[in-house]
Amino acid sequence: MKTKYITKGLIASLLLMLAFSGCETFNEPVIENLEVSREFSPIGLKATIRNQTTVELNWTVKDDEDADHYVVEFSADDPEFKTIYKTLNVAPTELPVQVPLEGETVYSIRVKAVSAAGLGDSKWSVTTATTLSEQLLSVVQDADIEAKQVTLRWTPNSNVTQIVVNPGNVIHAITPAEKTAGVAVVTGLVGETDYTASLFNGTKKRGERTFKTGIDIGTGILVKPEDDLNAKITEAAAGSVLVLMPGDYQVFKGEIILNKPITLRGLRPGDKPKLHVKFTVNAGTANLSLVDLDLEGSGVGDSNFITISGGSTSYGDILISGCYVHDYLRALIYGNASAAKVASFTVDNSIVKNVNTNAQADFIDFRNTYVASIVVKNSTFDTCSVGRDFVRADAVAPANGFSGTGLTTNVLIDSCTLYKVSNTAAPKRILYLRFASNSSTVKNTLIVSTTGIYTNQPATTMPTFSKNYYYDATSFIDGTIINNKIDASATTANPQFTNAATGDFTLGNQTLKDNRVGDPRWIK
Predict the structure, then answer these.
(1) Is there a single domain that holds both residue 117 and residue 170?
(2) pLDDT of 184 strictly over 90
(3) C-beta atoms surrounding 190 within 10 Å
(4) pLDDT tens-place string over residues 51-85
(5) Is residue 3 part of a domain?
(6) Domain total of the chain
(7) Which secondary-structure segment (H or E) carries 178?
(8) How far is CA 430 from the centre of its chain?
(9) Same domain, 185 and 124
(10) Which of 225, 309, 341, 357 could form a disulfide with 247 if both were Cys (CB 3.0 to 4.6 A apart)?
(11) Which part of the chain is the Fibronectin type-III domain (predicted)?
């Protein structure tokens, strides 16, 4: 009995003590400042590669942090930081910070905070970044390219030992004088060949550039500005290559009528010969190549630049490469010849400005004429096809055309800059494809300042889109437009052109540069 009451008394005492203890806890003051002995580690540490070998570092700096600065350490191909490659101090106000490094290296990067209040250093925050190939080589200028040799330039006094040019594995050992000057001439090349030049220090690549050697005239026909260009073409045999010296060709202006395969090309890509002509393509013109020319149309009348005229004929490849084509009132190419076929029409590495500005045709305009392939790449189109469509392929059935016969028209637009194209009359189309079987792809392309759309035609097969950017061009993603086939992967961003009004579309937006969007000539 006594044991029972003793037990009850102990339980009651314990409960009473716990109650008083709980009350005391609620009376303790709120902790407003956390007592710590060291700085907090940086959070949100991010490393981004800019321009091949520069890493941009950023992390979150809170308003209540007392960090005086941060210590950043880099180790190269060494995740355990046994050897520190580079160390720097970064103030909070210097973020984000860009650090140039060597190429083709995996860098381990750690950052710690150093207190301004006498606390201990924080623990390290760690990330990694892999640099791409270095780029000490300068872009190869047209003036430095010849038929059998090239002059290459790089940052003077850099640690470099040799240049390797391929194809052909042409090796040039760099002399002390060349190393100091940052210039070397590599010989032993072949004309009209696409080369890749790699700059090395031992086995580590420190730069790489591509170029194409100039024409080795060989059996080509040399043409001078004082010559009658039309007469020279008439005299030439089928398949001839006419190599034009730099200059302004004023002796003949107007229409050149072709009935045989021919190539016209400038001798020096950096000093293009200027022609004031238009072309009419008749039966017998198996192929037409226009390369490294300045083609000006203000004096050729209200007409197209190239017109396919001969019907019931199969044509081969029509190429515009490395050209500046400007001031033609109507289409860049117009094909309305009945029952005619064109294997391909290609525009590459060219600038086309103020072409098709009177709204009397479409820009690349195939109607009765069937075209198998349209390729537009690495090029800029400035104020073209005003109020009209950019690419047109009509559904003309036999006997005048080939729609519905099992043939397909394929269109590719890749790495192009389109500015004020198919503008002013909404909605005009970039892809006005009505040929019964068609496919189209648009990728790596920048479209700016237009009311245009891709297409609102039920007959146009849904295009394939990849990595395209738009600015002041909202209709390409406007699903409220009837039948509009939008780019669901579109990104909108200001390209920050240097001066679009003067034709300088150099990108200022770093993200577009990193993603290699638009005509490559403007990515610097």
Answers:
(1) no
(2) yes
(3) 13
(4) 888 999 999 998 777 899 999 999 999 999 999 99
(5) no
(6) 3
(7) helix 176-181
(8) 19
(9) no
(10) 225
(11) 41-135
